[in-house]
Amino acid sequence: MTSNSVRSSTGLGKLLAISSLATAAGLFASIARGKITAVTIGLGGLGTTSEIQQTVAFVMVPLAVFSGPALTTALLTDRICALRALLSARAFTLVCGLILTPVAIGIGLLLFKGETRREALWLALSAVFALATALFAVEQASLLAFQKVKQAGLLSVLQAVTQTIGVAVGTTLGGIDGQFICLAIASLAVLPVALYVSSQHLPPELARASSVLTHPRDWDRSFLASAALLGLATAASGFAAQGMWSLFRFVVHNDEGAIGNGLLQAARTTAVAYFGLVLQGLSTVVFPLFAAAKTPVALDAVLRRAIRLILLFAPPVILAAMSVRRPILVLLFAPDFANASELAGLFMASDLSKAFVWALGGPLLYLGKARAFVLAEITSTGLLLLSSMCLYWWRGTAGIGAGHIIGYSLSIATNALFLRKTLGVGPTGREVLVCLLGTIALSSLSTLSLRYPGAVTEIAMLLFATAWLVVSIRIYRKQST
Fold it and tell me: What does the DSSP 8-state code read for residue 132?
């Protein structure tokens, strides 16, 4: 995809909205499946199904590398090899899934004690679900690589609805057994639809790739190597972030007990859930454009567009979520968790800088600069850890939130340095200044809402966020004409 074929700014904004809505549909469907399970077979049944699925998902994690940045880059870099890359992604996902299935069953049986045959059935059906989902993700990634966001979004909604219906029907009729059976069937049922949609909307040279099975001689080993490299890079980033949060939980639990740890987890869950919609839209719509950029000029243009979208739309979205964080905490957890609103507000205030840092890491990952990406992510995690722990010893759990504001703000400089040294592009001083000023403004509004708590303040902030969003939309349209 060249710069001439890149979507207009107005179209890009619409694609981001579609992607975020599709992600939201999947999130709500996941919540609905949990509610259905809890109501139908109780909290014990919900715990059992979650443990089985999480165990299998952990073992099947390697399948995700075949639908990640390596596939997007291969599809957009060389159209001659694009067909082999797509066929290889499907084949590697299927073969690795079949190899990992007995591994998942064996590990699951070692971890869980009970009716061995029944648990083996649950684990096997969960593995089928995970494999079908991984193959489905390959088709979605292929569509997103060519900016077919509407089709990929509709597939996401179809998958979410089908799986939710499967859980409802299966759990009602057959309990835990019925849920696993129907969930596996539902996941397999949408796979042919995804293959058909891909064949209809991908470029002509890829349209004939309508099969999951292909001969080994057609496999692209270089794609396998690239997928493994970038997969290790993202895994290293994820492990670093998870290690940081494990340390936070350990320290808070040791100092403040289960209640303090619970408030920390509630604040983080609330902050992560809403902003995941924004980051998901950014990664599925904008990041493939990084892979398509052939020159530094084209890459710089895409980076400017991504940063402009973040600076225009992220602040009002963050402020809107910040205004209703207290009722959301009460709704999702319990009235006592309203005490986590200060920490949740601080996490949300850091999200503008977090999105900025996220955008600066995208070109490194999608252009195959794995070493620079890992170094940038580890550096960012180190800054977050250092600033959060220093402020925690001073202000308690609120210091972790304040540390995120400082850590992500500092990470803008380090990520920009890695990006400019590696690819020769980076944010302008004006863009960084606007981001930092926006972060300060959001932090101030979060503090103000705590000083004057109540429905009046929350409504006023929500109205202000709505007006801010309207102004941002008008500015965006004016700049796009």
Answer: H
Question: Is residue 236 within a helix (H) or strand (E), and if so which, with residue range?
Answer: helix 221-281
Mean pLDDT for the stretch of residues 243-248: 82
Phi, psi dihedrals of residue 68, rounded to the nearest 5°: -95, -155
Q: Could you tell me if 96 and 239 lie in one domain?
A: no
Q: Of 200, 219, 238, which residue constitutes the final position of a domain?
A: 219
In which residue are the tokens 């991504």 written? 306
Is 53 found in the same domain as 184? yes
Model pTM score: 0.77
- Give the contacts of 334 (CB within 8 A, at least 6 positions apart): none
Poorest-pLDDT segment among 63-67, 186-190, 402-406: 63-67
Q: What share of the chain is helix, strand, coil (3-state, %, to 5)?
A: 90, 0, 10
Q: Quick one: what percent of the chain has pLDDT higher than 90?
A: 17
Beta-carbon count within 10 A of 178 CB: 18
- Those residues whose C-beta lies under 8 Å from the C-beta of residue 240, and which sit 6 or more positions away, are 377, 378, 381
The two structure tokens encoding residue 439: 């972060």
Instruction: Please tell me whether residues 375 and 428 are part of one structural domain.
Output: yes
